[in-house]
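Q: Entry one of two.
A:
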Amino acid sequence: MAPIGGHRAEEEQAMAGAGSYDAIVIGGGHNGLVAAAYLGKAGLRTLVLERRGIVGGSCVTEEVWPGFHVSTTSYVLSMFHGRLMEELELHRFGFELIPTDNLFVPFEDGRYMILWDDEAKTCAEIAKFSKRDAERYPEYNRFLAQAAGFVRELAWKTPPASLSPGAARDMLELGWKFRKMGGAAFRFIDLMTESVVDFLDRWFESDQLKATLAYYGVIGNFKGPMTPGSAYVLLHHLMGEHEGAGGWGFIRGGMGGLTQALARCAQAAGATILTDAEVERVTIRDGRAVGVALANGDTYTARAILSNADPKTTYLRLIGRENLDGDVVAEIESYKTFSTAFKINFALDHLPTYSTFDREKIGLPFPTYIHIGPTVEYLERAYDDAKYGRPSTRPFLSPVVPTLTDPSLAPEGKHILNVFGGHAPYELAGTTWDEERETFADTVVETLAEFAPDLRDCIIDRQILMPPDLERIYALPQGHIFHGELTLDQLFFLRPVPGYGDYRTPIRGMYLCGSGTHPGGGVYGLPGHNAAREAIRDLKGRGLRRRG
């Protein structure tokens, strides 16, 4: 099936000429497409406006080099909920998940650890470093499963925007469920507030295991493993449920396979999708959003507008400061989005060889998913560099080769290597990314080559995406993959700003549906689902609700 985007069909333009819709979704990323699908299934005439020439936002597959179809930004599926897959029947629209069941972590002394979906196999790996930790790991797993279950339930709920009777009742219900966690509730509080190192120190003694698990606490955020609050990010990465179970996986056709399926689902539900359609402003009359104006001069009207753009762009540019109270402007300006995440994609002539990977002993032809972050100190020093505006001299890395599971992504015999990592600050001290880009990419290659010595001989070409590139191309604010930090002051009813955590905004009929809302970022889908639910309630239940 051809990808959705790249042109505006004449029939789509004719339909759009009517100009009036029940709902307009600004941005065709994964959350915007989820929202459009649910709006369409509710019988609402829906228009999706996507700035780029292809839908998907930062969850796309693009032909970067001839024959190489690259997941340019997001690269594995880890958080998209199985219930969304089932309700939207994504398999009908070409979606295919390829599960993976292992994480390979090499260490500097030549040893390695593998975390498997099979807990017994993982415990055997841990026992090579600490028998005590191997005995404790099942209890740790049970606690995280319990904590993740509580947070997953919370993720489907709309945060309260005020202390209304209904909101108070919901909060009391959640409080009762939290109380039922018993002694684990205190550990949960630790998980929400502590550094990931402090949290893991309570469980384990092995530096290798702690480094392996602490890695999850620094992915995508401007934090080190010793930074308070980094423990929650570990939990955030466990929120996905594939086919009713947790885990990681690749998508047939790359990450764009998900968003293309979502787009087809939305279209099947009656939604219209226009690409190359950049929204310049939201049209506001008497405190209510009534439509949008595009950069090319086109205008459309709707009863509800849902923005998949990040909160700062939505509030300060699309709505406009002049339409907001000073307190709201101050809150949104203080919303933290500074990013240090980067992505480098490589075209490979052949696979590199990891010096510590013994395929016969391990029983795999090649490591499926890899973390390069061998010690807690390594992870912290990578953060220390970034704190002072310097690129990490030894960055932490997540290299994956999707062509192992889907060879169709590259020419026969060739491969794609996706490398995500940190830290590469959005702004550099005393220099710019135009000057440092190639040097830092070389540092990434040198770092990875410490574990895969023949990597340089494998590389055909590379695509370098630093935070300013992620912002310019994919509209990620300051390159932040979550649309904002996952800190306690930016979660639940405080995300993105106090009083407007329920997906609504100070402008009637205007909603946020992107990663800058509850329950947060990643290829999640729930912000889009939850925002659509609230818009549908307002449109079909009570009309567009007023606040106060």
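Q: Entry two of two.
A:
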Amino acid sequence: MSLSRRDFLKISSTVAAISSIPVFKTVSAMSKSTPPSPPSFNPNFCELCFWNCGLMAKTVNGKVVTIDGNPLSYRGKGKLCGRGNAGLGLLYDSDRLKYPMLNTGKRGDPKWKQVSWDEALGFVANKMNDIKQKYGPESVVLFSHGTGGSFWKHLLKAFGSDTYAAPSFAQCRGPRDVGFYLTYGSDTGSPEYYDFSKSRFIVLVGSHLGENAHNSQVQDLMTGLNNGAKLVVLDPRLSNIASKADWWLPVKPATDMAILLAWIKIVVDEELYDKEYISKYAVGLKDLKEAVKDCSAEWASKLSEIPAATITDIARQMSKHKPNLCISGGRFTVWNGDDAQRSRAIAILNALMGSWGREGGYYLPAKGKVPPYPGLPEYPETKPPITGEYPFALLPVTNAIREAVTTNKPYPCRGWIVYGSNLIKTLPNSKETIDAIKKLDLMVAVDVLPMDIVKWADVVLPECTYLERYDDIATGRFQYFEAALRVPAMKPMFESKPSWWITKELSKKLGLEAYFPWTDIEDYLKARCNAAGISFDELRKNGVVKLSTDWNPYISQQNQPVFNTPSEKIELYSKQLKEKGFDPVPKYTAHEQPPQGYFRLVFGRTPLHTFSRTTNNFMLDDLVPENELWINSKQAARLGLKKGEYVRLANQDGVKTDTKIKVKITERLREDCVYMYHGFGVHASELSRANKRGIGTDELITRYKVDPIMGGTSLRGNFVKIIREAQL
């Protein structure tokens, strides 16, 4: 039975409502003989992905028994996605890291010794001081992903190191942020400033929105579509959201730029752009027109394999709906190595439509901040963070830090503290990551689960889950300013500890107590709330406080936009790029295509997993226990593949997987690609449910290009062939 989009939207509303129903009525860890005490409710926000949706946790007899969405939270709007509802699966995971441990064996082949927190932190402090004496404090670096990382950043800066990075920049959203920053003097925010609920026209470029969860954003998108917005999706795969589009463009991979440039040319040549907006707020239109003069729809059609008439029609349709349209910048944007320029093309197209700062486009976020803890000593002077040879890197670059271990440029990186980041599976070419780790003087893993990275550590510091801890105040600049708080719903299990406690105790051993003067975390949080004029008691009770409610999210006579660019306007033509030797207007670059017998490897998320972070979760494992290899039905027939058959893969560099993957035969994918979910194929024997289930894309990404503008690593430039069991 086929579904219309109207049917889909009705079903989506039902599913969204169901997703807020508590998943547990009881917890096996609670003794049945214990009389139930009156329940308590504590606000929190989810950490199963970065979206951090607000939730309320119900606790009975010291155990969390249900979690539900917090209606006050903008990020979740009262609902939790499938992953978020499985938070108790992390809390009660029997594979959790339980005690501090020292590795008495080799990195990669560890022999763990359970130790006290005092011994573990003493070991770390001694190693950090040794590195500081030999190489300088900046040689201790932090890789961080998660809210608790703020305390580790604070500790490192107090120690004298400003060297920290997150893979979310160079391996995910960095090209988008830089492309928009070069155009508007602002990135797109996180969560993004998309005004989907009021859009009349929406374009998604390679974005499988919905499958990546992004709770409030999906709700806004569904509202927009339900209100009649038109949807265009460029994607070689018919994703779930693409199946609901008015136009699905199964673009040939690595040719998206051609379509974007053709759209720009049509809009400029036919004067379909917002003339008043461009005249008032932008510079470089004449140079832009000259730069795209050869980028016709016919030219783009030959490259992308999308009909020229379709390309032209969509450009005109966009113009009809301006300025109430949003061409999404996406999130996972590291594809081909020239990704900042592709993102800039998206930013330019939005500018031509006049969508920045306009209803249904990109809203102007509210102002606001929570000041730091008052009265702290100044940080010591530090060397600049490592951004490599990439002049427009807005943040430190993970792969540049990895390279510095070997090159010692711009300075040695001899100690790694890895907080909540499974680097083996996030950085391209895991062999390079492992080779770098082997050369370190210190490797510390701070995590909840024994992920792949843990076996390469010298010391493991077990963090308690987000339901067991206070964390720093989380802020968001939406159409109002939001402050959110995580309150522990129960005491930490085993000997796990929150990062605020770990870093405070470590500061004592490093002689940095002056930077951690608070008696406990509530003392710290109250001081920050007082500095911001926020009631701690209200925040503690509700989990969310909204400020700046009078902020105007749209351009008006009284609310003019500010563009932090050299010209103080939207830059369609970028002089700062030209000065650094880059194209001031994006150009199309031809990229390598799969050789005979190979397919381009593309990947994404399943709605029920956040990469390897959740593949061991017993509440999700039964639903999606492994990833599958999507392959076009014609190619499957040519190769004689059967549905459900298990195969291995080998890439263009001869790397073969040691695990297998199940074949999924489909017509929802171009013939030149295969597709799989990222995050599976974990190689961590302590993860009893996830270990070696499916194939990890990270094993096959041995080849990558680095974006010369901002340092992002291309992750869609590898090709694979299928190996059947009979061929082994």
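A: Comment on entry two: Residues 101-169+371-469+489-546 form a domain with the Rossmann fold fold (CATH 3.40.50.740). The longest helix spans residues 117-135.
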